[in-house]
Amino acid sequence: MRSWVNDPHSGGVKIPDNVKQRTKQRILAYAEQHYSGKYIRIDVRFKGYFCYIDAYKEPFISDNYDPSLFKVTREEFLERARNIPIHLCRLRYKGNEEKWTKAFYTYSNEKYEPSVFNNGTFYGTPEEAFQSSAIYLES
Predict the structure, then answer these.
(1) How far from 17 is each of 21, 48, 84, 92, CA to CA, in Å?
(2) Mean per-residue pLDDT for 116-133?
(3) 49-75 per-position pLDDT tens digit
(4) Domain extent at residue 118
């Protein structure tokens, strides 16, 4: 006998343009309201049924930076480091703007891994996804 199982971390629905616009606005507004000053920019991009959220931070650089060690000037190092994304999370759209699934980027495996939201379920809003993945902005 076959049974149907809902896997929150497979499949999805192609994200309509109007949902993309609203979702991006929601994420950016939430980031600005709750995490202003902890990033230099947030990048929200879409592909198929996925929404990717990346952050960029001002890099730390020591006062005694030695350009001979890195073979680039201090300014070149800063410019390069400012453009390295911190992958916060990936959302999967299932057709409901209030119920996305989330995956964290694991740097140890260099891939996205399914995750639960802080509400204890596999479903949440874009704002909840940002909030739970913003731990990467704290350091």
Answers:
(1) 6, 11, 27, 15
(2) 96
(3) 999 999 999 998 888 999 888 899 999
(4) 22-60+85-138
Rounded CA-CA distance 102/100 in Å is 7
pLDDT of residue 139: 63
Q: Please name which of 3, 26, 8 lies closest in space to residue 94, comparing C-alpha atoms.
A: 8
Answer whether 44's CB lies under 8 Å from 30's CB: no
Is the pLDDT assigned to residue 120 strictly greater than 90?
A: yes
The secondary structure of residue 16, as a DSSP letter, is P
- The single residue listed with the structure tokens 């001979």 is 68
Is residue 68 domain-resident? Answer: no
Tens of pLDDT, residue by residue over 84-111, are 999 999 999 999 999 999 999 999 999 9
In a domain, 129, yes or no: yes
Instruction: State whether the Cα torsion 57-124-114-16 is positive or negative.
Output: negative
Residue 90 placed within a domain: yes
> Which letter does DSSP use for residue 124 in this model?
B
